[in-house]
Design brief:
The structure holds 2 protein chains of 2 kinds. Chain A has helices at 15-27, 40-49, 70-78, 82-85, 99-106, 121-129, and strands at residues 6-11, 31-37, 57-62, 88-94, 111-116. Chain A is of the alpha/beta class. In chain A, strand 4 (88-94), helix 5 and strand 5 (111-116) form a beta-alpha-beta unit. The chains are: A alpha/beta, B alpha/beta.
Chain lengths: 133, 363
């Protein structure tokens, strides 16, 4: 793996927002790989099936999605073994300006931050700085 | 006055003579129920929950009027209570009024005018309080909906706008024309989604606030409108669209509600199709008979999982992983049906298809 490059997972029911996130991530120059899921269930299955990741993986997950929403995804993720979880860093994304949602995000130990949509170059750069100061 | 519209009054007195003379005096003005004791009175209330005024004698063996009123207050909070007392039992009167159980008291021997005015006033009070309760319930519902709406609006209305802003940010760095074109196409989709949401919202409020406009309905017209909307979807998506109308006799109803219902059901039937297959079909049939219209929309699409069946009519509920659903469609259908006294039945099997049967009575 090249120096400072990371893996990414994007989970958003909106195809358009997935496309935006993917582009921004690819443009960041720090991307080793990026996986996009429009359904949270599939992302969870992917994480479960993947061999324990040795490299850092940043996960961007939308909050409001049908069937399994962002919160449910995180709750299910937190049930996984520590060994499996340790290299995933979750960021929750939403267009919602709901205080309750933002407060709720803080309650999940595995969630790093709440980010406002849309994902922009600036946001992703500040996320990346946390890993490569 | 139509007897069903008369004010329903219950009078309780242990003296049969009083009961008889009360009934004789007022039977033309009110629908009178009489009871010789409190047990009988409870029975009358049980049988006639729409009794709006209760008059009770204070001094009765077993239970006083005040005690009786206190007793029934939890179970029958709505009827307005009037106490009749034969002697200057001022203490019991003060007591009753202070406890808030009694609207008026009448002294024995009563005069017809006194009783009549007390009943009429009591009824006015009854109407106002029941209206208030009803309005409060409606208001409560409206508040809850508003909360849900405010929450969803930030997501469903802001979502597409933020997506477009994201794309605009991307186009700044795009070099290839083809890439830009692709992005423009995506922005178009986001705007169509937003527009669709706003139209649904508009439907929702026209159902909610709009007055019904009852006219003769020609279901051939309804069919034509729906064909105009969905023949294209049928061709583009390669889904067969089977249609039939059979109208025997006149039907009166609200055109807009009926079209909102048909439109939403068809939109879902075309939307929730399987990804591929040559036998994909939506069938739409209307049958009018015996003053009842039965509209059936059936598809062999993805169906509804059993665990979601109870939620499909809930506002903002989205059961599928598609990004077009607004969570408004079936909620609007149900709302429109409530307004025109219609009913809906759903049968659905996951991966087999769904069938919606709507029954609407003619006005």
């Amino acid at each position: 793996m090249s120096e400072g490059k990371m893996n990414f997972i994007v989970i958003d029911d909106s195809k358009l927002d997935c496309f935006i996130a993917e582009k921004i991530i690819l443009n960041s120059g720090k991307c080793e790989s990026v996986k996009v899921f429009q359904q949270a269930v599939q992302a969870l299955e992917y994480i479960q099936a993947a061999a324990t990741s040795q490299s850092t993986t940043v996960v961007f997950v939308d909050i409001q999605m049908p069937v399994m929403n962002g919160f449910e995804f995180v709750e299910n993720f937190e049930k996984l073994s520590d060994e499996l979880k340790k290299n995933y860093h979750i960021y929750m994304l939403s267009s919602s300006i709901n205080e309750n949602d933002i407060a709720r995000v803080k309650g999940y130990p595995s969630v790093k931050h709440f980010l406002n949509k849309p994902l922009t170059n600036n946001t992703i750069q500040s996320v990346l700085e946390e890993y490569n100061p | 006055m139509d007897s069903s519209k008369k004010i329903k009054v219950l009078y309780i007195d242990d003296e049969p003579n009083n009961l008889v003379s009360f009934k004789a005096s007022f039977r033309f003005d009110y629908t009178i129920f009489i009871a010789n004791n409190t047990t009988e009175a409870l029975q009358r209330l049980e049988e006639n929950p729409d009794i709006s005024v209760i008059l009770s004698d204070q001094k009765m063996p077993g239970m006083t009027g005040v005690e009786f009123f206190e007793d029934i207050r939890t179970k029958y909070p709505n009827p307005v209570r009037i106490l009749i007392t034969g002697y200057a039992d001022i203490d019991s009167v003060i007591n009753a009024i202070n406890r808030g159980h009694v609207f008026r008291y009448i002294k024995k021997p009563w005069t017809d005018v006194d009783v009549q005015s007390a009943i009429d006033e009591a009824y006015k009070f009854y109407v106002t309080t029941s209206m208030l309760t009803l309005k409060n319930e409606e208001l409560q519902k409206a508040y809850e909906e508003l909360d849900k709406f405010a929450y969803s609006a930030t997501h469903d209305m802001r979502g597409p706008i933020l997506s477009v802003l994201g794309i605009i940010d991307l186009t700044k760095n795009a070099e290839e024309m083809s890439e830009v074109k692709e992005m423009v196409g995506m922005m178009e989709n986001a705007m169509l989604k937003l527009d669709n949401y706003i139209q649904n919202l508009h439907d929702h409020y026209s159902i909610r606030r709009g007055e019904l406009n009852i006219t003769d309905i020609d279901f051939e017209d309804v069919m034509k409108d729906m064909s105009d909307l969905y023949d294209i979807s049928s061709r583009v998506k390669n889904v067969k669209f089977e249609k039939s109308v059979q109208q025997n006799g006149k039907f009166r109803g609200d055109d807009i509600s009926i079209k909102i219902i048909a439109n939403n059901l068809l939109s879902n039937a075309f939307k929730y199709q399987k990804k591929e297959g040559d036998d994909r079909t939506v069938s739409f049939s209307i049958k009018v008979e015996n003053n009842t219209a039965v509209i059936t929309v059936e598809d062999n699409g993805i169906g509804i999982p059993e665990k979601n069946m109870n939620d499909v009519f809930t506002m903002f509920f989205r059961g599928a992983n598609d990004e077009i659903g607004s969570g408004f469609g079936l909620y609007n259908v149900k709302d429109a049906l409530n307004k025109i006294n219609g009913k809906i039945e759903v049968t659905s099997t996951e991966n087999v298809g769904s069938k919606f049967i709507v029954t609407i009575p003619s006005k």
